Amino acid sequence: MDKSINKYISETGFCSRREADKYIEQGRVTINDNIASKGNRVEEGDVVEVDGEPLKKKKATVLIALNKPKGITCTTDTKDKTNIIDYVNFSSRIFPIGRLDKLSEGLIFLTNDGDIVNKILRAGNQHEKEYYVVVDKPINLEFIKAMRNGVRIMGTTTQKCFVHQEGSDRFRIILTQGLNRQIRRMCEALGYNVRSLKRIRIMNMTLKDLAPGKWRYFTKEETTTINEMVANSSKTAKGNNDNDGMDE
Predict the structure, then answer these.
(1) Which terminus of the chain has fewer Cβ atoms in its 10 Å neighbourhood, N or C?
(2) What pTM does this model have?
(3) What is the pLDDT of residues 86-144, one digit of tens each?
(4) Average pLDDT over residues 211-222
(5) What is the pLDDT of residues 34-47, one digit of tens each?
(6) Which portions of the sequence form the region Disordered (predicted)?
(7) CA distance 94 to 16
(8) Which residue among the candidates 51, 80, 101, 244 is catalytic per the annotation?
(9) Which residues pair with 67 in a beta bridge?
C-alpha cells in the first residue's frame, strides 16, 4: 500500500478528499505522530490519526437518498441549527454528496464513503442531475433557447443542456455541470427569479415515492448501478470551489 494521505483518509470512509485536505491544512492529521502535510504518502503499517484518534478500517458503505425540504442546509457543521446531519439524525457519521441550496428542495445523497463522494462529484464524469423549476413570470421560447445554449454567469458560459418548458412559468432542466447556484444564476442573468427549485433525479435515482423530508437506503440494485456508473470515474479530473459536480 502506498497512497496519498487524503486518498487514504477518504477510503476509510471518514470524509471526502476535499474535507481531508481541510483537516490536513488545519494540522489535525498525523502520520506516526508527525503532523501530516498535503502530498504525504501513507505506507503499510503507518498509523494515521485525526484529532488524536486513529482512523478505523472502513465500515460497510451507507448510501441514503433524502428528499430535502426547504430550509435545511447541506452542511456537516452542527453549529448551523438547520444542518442536514442533525436533520437526518443517522446513527453513525455520514455526510452529503454535493449540495442543494437552503431554499431548494429535492433529491440529495448522503453516505459514509468518501471514495464514492469523490467519484460522483467529479465534474468530468458527466453525471446527470434533473431539476423542476418555477420562476416569477411567464417564460418564452427565447428564454428556453438561451438556457439550452448557455448563459454567461460567474465569468464563464454554462454548458449546453436539456431544457423543456412544463408550463407558463416552469421548466425542467438536466445539468451535468455543478456551478454554485447555477440554475438561479442562469435565470437571474436572463431577468427571472426562481420561486421554487426541486431536484427530481440524480443519475439513475429519482424521488419516486419519497415524501418531502423523508429518507431511505439505496436498494442493492441501486447501489450496484451507482457503483457501475462511477467505476470508470476519472482519477485526474479536478473540481474547484465553484464546481463540485452536484450543486444547483
Answers:
(1) N
(2) 0.75
(3) 999 999 889 999 889 999 999 999 999 888 888 887 755 578 999 999 999 999 999 99
(4) 94
(5) 999 998 999 988 99
(6) 229-248
(7) 11
(8) 101
(9) 107
**Closest to 131 (Cα-Cα) out of 87, 166, 83:** 166
Surface-to-core class of residue 191, CB atoms within 10 Å of its CB (0-12 exposed, 13-18 middle, 19+ buried): exposed
DSSP codes joined into one string, 154-215:
TTEEPPP-EEEEEETTEEEEEES--BTTHHHHHHHHTT--EEEEEEEEETTEE-TT--TT-E
77 is catalytic: no
User: Do 211 and 107 meet the contact criterion of CB atoms below 8 Å apart?
Assistant: no
Q: Where are the domains of the chain?
A: 2-54, 63-122+209-230, 125-202
> Grid cell 482519477 — which residue?
235
Provide the CATH number for the domain formed by 2-54 in this structure.
3.10.290.10
Residues 125-202: name the CATH superfamily: Pseudouridine synthase (3.30.2350.10)
Other Cβ atoms within 10 Å of 208 Cβ, number = 11
Spatial CA neighbour of 213 closest among 70, 64, 62: 70
pLDDT in tens, 188-213: 999 999 999 999 999 889 998 899 99
Distance of alpha carbon 45 from alpha carbon 23, whole angstroms = 21
Distance in angstroms (rounded) separating the CA atoms of residues 174 and 225: 20
Q: So what CATH class is 63-122+209-230?
A: alpha beta
Q: Is 141 exposed, middle or buried (0-12, 13-18, 19+ CB in 10 A)?
A: exposed
**Residue 19: how many CB atoms within 10 A of its CB?**
17
